[in-house]
């Protein structure tokens, strides 16, 4: 009788040990997965560009190493800098992208700081200011539309609300207007914002 009781107790004890071990392993695995997710979330930089084009939404974003939003700042031999930011909206389809592209030009990159504003049209990029384009692919039958050639841009406003030179991140606002010299269609890009756009610093 005692032998049977001891065997039963032994079986219960072994079952308890296995249950605890299994629970501990499951908990460790869950903790490891959670930690990995947290590390991945920390590594990801979410960059966005949003605006309205004649009242219609424009949305461009990336997570990690995507290509939908990009920026560069070139240090010129003259001592000034030329910044460029572009965003592509593929909501209609990969073969029918919308594109917003604008430049901002200044005198000294080291002096570039939060709150910098560019509102002078500079198509030749020789003086401080900004320039912008807008293009839209409407498919094979209709082709492209937009503006950006010389004298088509009528108003421009770019503001750098935040620049992190250590991590190379840009955030800001933009608005601009133009008219196509081909079709006469007017375009108003309003409520433009870009956030956490990683830029490449290039020195000539």
TrEMBL record:
Protein known as: Uncharacterized protein
Organism: Maribacter vaceletii
Superkingdom of this protein's organism: Bacteria
Lineage, uppermost ranks: Bacteria, Pseudomonadati, Bacteroidota, Flavobacteriia, Flavobacteriales
């Amino acid at each position: 009788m005692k032998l049977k009781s001891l065997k039963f107790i032994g079986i219960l004890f072994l079952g308890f040990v296995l249950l605890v071990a299994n629970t501990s392993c499951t908990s460790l695995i869950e903790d490891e997965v959670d930690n990995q997710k947290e590390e991945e979330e920390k590594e990801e930089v979410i960059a966005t560009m949003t605006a309205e084009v004649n009242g219609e939404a424009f949305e461009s974003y990336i997570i990690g190493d995507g290509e939908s939003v990009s920026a560069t700042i070139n240090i010129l031999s003259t001592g000034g800098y030329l910044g460029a930011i572009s965003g592509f909206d593929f909501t209609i389809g990969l073969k029918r992208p919308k594109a917003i592209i604008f430049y901002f030009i200044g005198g000294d990159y080291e002096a570039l700081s939060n709150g910098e504003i560019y509102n002078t049209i500079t198509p030749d990029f020789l003086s401080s200011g900004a320039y912008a384009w807008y293009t839209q692919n409407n498919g094979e039958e209709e082709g492209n539309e937009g503006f950006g050639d010389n004298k088509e841009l009528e108003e421009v406003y770019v503001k750098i609300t935040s620049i992190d030179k250590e991590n190379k991140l840009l955030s800001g606002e933009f608005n601009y207007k133009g008219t196509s010299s081909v079709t006469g269609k007017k375009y108003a890009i309003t409520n433009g914002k870009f956030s956490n756009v990683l830029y490449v610093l290039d020195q000539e």
